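Hi P.,

Sorry for the delay on this. The queue was packed all week, but I finally got your sequence through. Input first:
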Amino acid sequence: MELDREYSLLIVDDESEIRETYSAYFRKRGFHVDTAVNGVEALAKLKAGEFDVTLVDLSMPEMGGIQLIEEVLKQGRIDTRFIVLTGHGGYEDAVKAIRLGAVYWFEKSNIDMAEVLAKVIDFAQIMPLRDVARLLGPILRDE
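Then the structure:
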């Protein structure tokens, strides 16, 4: 699938194999990819840069995915879409993440990378709110 631009993706997981596998997969498909080992590192990267989509594991040391999403909501100025990765038995946490604003979730044990790619592209292509505000600002000021 040809991308219309290079989308940025942050992969947050404490398992190095997941980070490396997903990074390689998405880079081969034209994404700019960065990684973080936990929510603390991810929050710092989200504050410093712009990521269209963040793939986040729910269960990590220091700060898990739920806490990361909550912190991003508190910040209010970070614009990314969260897709949750959960281990087996993490259904309740995945539902909580969706209620907080995550756009989709996948169970790690039953992952189809083509489906993950399709969802990441779908959500990356949604225009970020900061761009909507920038484009509509002059129009709304003229009224």
